[in-house]
Design goal:
The chain has one domain (6-311): Glycosidases (TIM Barrel, Alpha-Beta Barrel). Helices cover 34% and strands 11% of the residues. It has helices spanning 38-47, 80-92, 121-137, 165-181, 197-203, 229-240, 256-267, 289-306, and strands spanning 6-12, 55-59, 96-100, 143-145, 185-189, 209-211, 247-248, 275-278. Helix 1 runs parallel beside helix 8. The longest helix has 18 residues, at 289-306. The relative contact order is 0.15.
Length: 312
């Protein structure tokens, strides 16, 4: 296995990837002001290096005071100077901060009014402006995560717009083109592959880094294949020649990171395995601090077991 793998932790600065923009939603996700607890944020970030993380993927959303589109910034959003200072602090701890803006129509509440304008000229301009501004804010990162998960799978109450597959591919390639212009490799969730693996592998750019995720038990059939398409997708992507960063979470199974890393070593060629990512899917609140610590420690144990050479 190649050295210098990505060992990544996703952390959410914005909470507004779900719900209905404009009012606090009944599901408790949408917030009309920034609710990230700064003390908890700093404590979690400080804890990560000791667990072997070298990358922090930041869900930016509406939590920054954008210059290009200030109408999107939620009250209490961090100034760009404040976020830059935090990015520098993350780098001083030996980790690389990377940006994430989720453009899935199932997770774009943070885009507010523009979430109702998907695939229109105005929407495309806003998306380009934001990718360019965030890329500059992160000092032109090597990777830019675009989300794009669960657009076809969520319940109707969260799906106000669903793009036809042809338009979805057009828009995906549009985002990729902007990433290319700012010098960042696009990075996406790979769960759309679950719906139609053949279509996905045929139309997805090989330049896009893939993060498949499945947080349950990775059970196998007698022939070695996985029992669920969500897990088998790792092997489907490998066979098709995609670079991958398999993604785990302790949200459903505490041992998911260990099983994911075991799978990665067994089923993905070293030259295409670019690292691992873990996602706690807890917001950065005081009450959830221990959940973040638990996520990081479980990832550390999995890394020590399955990639001890990376722990030296």
């Amino acid at each position: 296995m190649e050295k210098d793998l990505m060992w990544g932790y996703l952390i959410q600065l914005s909470t507004n990837m779900w719900g209905e923009p404009g009012a606090n939603s009944t599901n408790g996700f949408w917030q009309d002001h920034l609710t990230t607890d700064e003390e908890t944020w700093k404590k979690v970030i400080d804890f990560l290096p000791g667990c072997g993380f070298n990358t922090v993927l930041i869900d930016v959303g509406d939590a920054v005071q954008f210059e290009s589109h200030p109408e999107l910034s939620i009250p209490g959003a961090w100034s760009k100077e404040k976020l830059k200072g935090e990015l520098d602090r993350i780098r001083s701890l030996g980790m690389t901060p990377l940006p994430k803006l989720n453009f899935s129509a199932g997770h774009d509440a943070w885009l507010k009014i523009y979430s109702r304008m998907v695939s229109t000229p105005q929407y495309y301009q806003v998306c380009e402006d934001l990718i360019r501004e965030v890329a500059e804010l992160f000092d032109h990162p090597a990777y830019f995560h675009l989300g794009m998960d669960e657009e076809w799978d969520q319940g109707a109450e969260n799906m106000k717009i669903v793009r036809p597959r042809r338009i979805w591919w057009h828009d995906m390639n549009f985002y990729f083109g902007i990433c290319d212009k700012v010098g960042a490799r696009p990075w996406v969730w790979a769960d759309p592959c679950w719906n139609d693996p053949e279509d996905y592998c045929k139309n997805m750019s090989k330049d896009a880094l893939q993060s498949n995720w499945y947080y349950g038990t990775l059970r196998r059939n007698p022939d070695g294949s996985f029992k669920r398409i969500e897990s088998e997708t790792y092997r489907i992507l490998e066979k098709a020649g995609f670079d991958q960063v398999p993604t785990s979470s302790a949200l459903a199974r505490w041992y998911n990171a260990a099983e994911t890393m075991e799978m990665g070593k067994r089923d993905i060629a070293p030259e295409r395995l670019k690292g691992y990512l873990t996602c706690p899917w807890y917001f950065v609140y005081k009450k959830d601090y221990e959940a973040h610590i638990n996520e990081a420690e479980l990832f550390k144990r999995a890394k020590e077991k399955h990639s001890p050479e990376e722990c030296k």
